[in-house]
Design goal:
alpha/beta; seven-stranded parallel sheet; Rossmann fold; about 250 residues; single chain
Amino acid sequence: MSNKIAIVTGGSRGLGKNTALHLAGKGIDVILTYHSKQAEADAVVAEIESKGQKAVALALDIGNSQSFDNFVQQVAAALKQTWNQTQFQYLVNNAGIGINASFAETSEQQFDQLVNIHLKGPFFLSQKLLPLLADNGRIINVSTGLTRFALPGYAAYATMKGGIETLTKYMAKELGVRGIAVNVVAPGAIETDFGGGAVRDNAQINQFVASQTALGRVGVPDDIGGVIAALLSEDNRWVNAQRIEASGGMFI
């Protein structure tokens, strides 16, 4: 039985890296993407290989849909070269950036950047990868707690993620004929370098989030990677078109 293979976008750091390592720990091989920091991606590949799994890092600008055809060709080549396979089983649409700007001050340029990275990118990347995604595979789209509760400064970002949550239902409905399940994981505030590392590095923000979270602390990447890996397992094969929030109970 050949190993199952997952594609994790934005897998060189943060939640994507943590997800890739959790998947490797469960015996799943990984194709991870990075935007610019190849050394970081290569380090994750080495860590996955140290766990006894195979991994490949490919460059991808999720905000540039014109590059997707070339990326899909690279994925097909990597599948053949590294695994002697033509398909992969899991897709985790994780790559993203954070822009903090009030509704009144969000520029069109910021809005368009967020559309391209968080909505248009995952939409068309998933579409173009469909021929390489095996029947009975699974897709996880990463959203945010900010679609359920509102914190000033994330109007545009959360709007794109709201779109992703709606898209997930349509993907699940239309891909169900192929046995492909599609779900959303919505993290709460996590201590990473996301959005300039505000939650991690700003003690006041960190303390505020912790005070509004039932479990009394801010999330860390290890709180999320395991959720995504678990949702991809056979144990959760009947979970479909769902939004799973992993926030420790923020604002409940």
